[in-house]
Every structure is written in C-alpha cells, then in structure tokens.
Amino acid sequence: xxxxxxxxxxxxxxxxxxxxxxxxxxxxxxxxxxxxxxxxxxxxxxxxxxxxxxxxxxxxxxxxxxxxxxxxx
Length: 73
Fold this sequence. Notes:
mainly alpha
C-alpha cells in the first residue's frame, strides 16, 4: 500500500529560507542544544552569538517575539 503524501509545516513555505532566517534558526538550535530553554536565556544567547536583530539593536524579549510572529505569518 502506498503511503499518503504529507507536507511537513516547513515544506509549505512560499520560498526557501533567507540567509538571515537560516542563521537565526541555527542559532536557536544551538541555544537549545546548550540547554537554554527560557526566553531570556535565548535572547541573551542571540545577543552574544548573533545574528543581530533586524532593528540593528540588541535583541529584546519583545523584539524576539515580534520577529517570530513576523516570520511565522
């Protein structure tokens, strides 16, 4: 019996991830791998390792939440 086709959520994108999106995703994965699972710890990690926030300013909890909402839209 043939398996039904199924799209993972990431496969429903309109375009491939940008370099920025890939860098951000990789940084978030590294933070999780180091045991950082709280938002403030993640934001601190991004400020230490990059990528820089889209505003050009340090990441903040609110800025991170806005960026995740924008990328998830």
